[in-house]
Amino acid sequence: MHSEKLKNFLHKRRQAEQSGGEEKIQSQHEKGKLTARERIDLLLDESSFTEIDALVTHHYYEFDMQNKKFFGDGVVTGYGTINGRKVFLFAYDFTVLGGTLSEMGAKKITKVMEHATRVGCPIIGIIDSGGARIQEGILSLDGFASIFYHNQLASGVVPQITCSIGPSAGGAVYSPAMTDFVIMVDKISTMFVTGPEVVKTVLGEEVSFDELGGAMSHGKISGVSHFVAKNEYQCMDTVKSLLSYMPQNNTEEPPIVDTGDDPNRLDNNLINIVPENPLQPYDMKEIIHSIVDNHQFFEIHELFAQNVIVGFGRLHGKTVGIVANQPMVLAGALDIDSSNKASRFVRLCDCYNIPIVTLVDTPGYMPGTHQEHGGIIRHGSKLLYAYCEATVPKITIIIGKAYGGAYIAMGSKNLGTDMNYAWPTAQIAVLGSEAAVRIMNRKEIETAKDPISLKKQLVDNFTEKFANPYVAASYGTIDTVIDPAETRPVIIRALEGLTNKRERRIPRKHGNINL
Ligand code: HXC
After folding, report:
1. Mean pLDDT throughout 355-380?
2. Cys staple from 359: which of 97, 119, 324, 377, with CB 3.0 to 4.6 Å?
3. How many angstroms is it from 118 CA to the middle of ligand 1?
C-alpha cells in the first residue's frame, strides 16, 4: 500500500523535474537557450539546490486550462549556495506555457522573496517569460503586483540580481527594473513593455525584437541592463562576480578578500596619464586600474553613459565603489544619463555598506537645449541628493578639472564627503579660465586696443590664480594635495581612518529624491 503511495509520489516528482516535457525542452535548446533547471545548475554550487513548491499547479479552468497543468506552473524556485554563500532564486520555466506568470507562479516567487528577505540572503531572478498569463487575466496581473511589492520590500535589505535570458515581456520587465542589477544575454534576451507587433499597430513603426529591446539596446541606450553577457555562461559568472563584492544583506559588510596586493604600492607613472594640455582626453580607467588591488576593476554599466564610470574594486581586500568621470567621452561632462547612472550606483553602495571613492575630472554639467529640455536639472540633482544621502565612508580625489556644479556634484566636501584630496594637476573653479574671463571681462576685452593679447593675459592670470588645488586646500575643502604616485596608499589609509564611521540622521519615513 505504502509502496504504491511512494511510487505515485516519485512519478509526480519525475514529472515535475521534466517541466513542460521533452518536446518543449528540445524547442528551448533549439532556440539556443538552457532550461530553467540547467540554468540553476550552472549558477549554484554543485548539488546545493533545494527546490520549493515543485508540486504547485494552477487552479484555473477557463480556456481549457484544466488540460494544461504542469507541476511547478512555469517557475522553478528554491535556494542554494554560490561559492558557499546562500542565495534564494526563482527561474521562469519557458517550457511551461512560455514561462508566463500565473497566480500560483507569483505566489511561489513571492514566497522565496519573503524567505530571502527574512534570512538576509540575496535574491536571484532568472527571467524567460511571455509576461502575464493571458488566460488568468486579473489573477496574473495581481501576481505581478505582489512581486513588485516584494521587490520593494527587499530593496536595500538584500541584493537583488536579475538574469534576463530570453523574452521578458509586459509585467516581466518591471520586476527586473526594480532590482539592483540586470544582466542580459546578447542575441537571446529581449525586454519590452509591448512587442514589435503592438509597436507597429499603434505607431506604424517597423522594428525588430532585438532592435526594440535586445541586450545591446538596453545595455547601451536605455541603461536598463547593467551588463551584456556574451552567453548564458558569462551571465552566471557575472552574477558570481557581483556577489563577491556585495554583502549578504544591509546589516553586513562585504566579504574581505586576501588579494595579496601591497597596500603601500606606489605608481610613479600615474601623473603621466594626465596630459599637460587639459583639453586633451585621457583614459580614466588607466588610473582606476592602477589604484585597485591587483588592477582588477569590475565595471558596471560599461556600455551606457560612458562619460561616467562606475564599478567595484578592492582596496587592501575591501570592496569599494568607484565613481569617476571619463574624459575620453564627452570630455567627462555630466549629462542626464550619466547623472542617473552615477546616482543609482552611489545609492546602491550606500544601501550595502560599500565605501565610495570618487575620481574627478569634469568640465561641468552638459549645456544645451537637448539636456535642459530633457531635464538635466531634475536628473542632475539626483547625483547631489545621492551623495548627500550616502552615509558610508566617502573619499574624493580631484585629478583634473572640477568646474562649477559638477565639482560640487562629484563628492565635494560640503556634500558630506569625509576625505577630499587633489592632485597638483587639479583645477578647481566655478568655470574654466576661458569661460570665466569671457564672462567677467567681456566689456574690458571688447574695448581693448589689443583684445587678443589682453584676453590671453587675463586667462593666464585666472589659470595661475584659481585653476589649481591650492585655493581649495587653503580653505580646507581639500584636505590635502597629494603626490599622484601615492593615491592608492592615501585612499587605503583614509578608509582605515574611516572604519566604523557612524552617521545618524533625523529619523523620517524616507526622503523625497527628485526622481
Ligand atoms: C499566455 C503565452 C503568453 C502569454 C506566450 N505564451 N506568451 N500564453 N499568455 N502572455 C505561450 C504561447 O502561446 C506558447 O504556447 C508558449 O507560450 C511559447 O510562446 P511562443 O510564442 O511559441 O514562443 P516564442 O516564439 O519564443 O515567443 C515568445 C514571446 C511571444 C516573444 C514571449 O510568445 C510573445 O510575444 N508573447 C506575448 C508577450 C506579451 O505581450 N506579454 C504581455 C502580457 S501583458 P504553446 O502552448 O504554443 O507552447 C503583461 C502586463 C503586465 O504582462 C503589466 C504589469 C505592469
Report:
1. 94
2. 324
3. 33
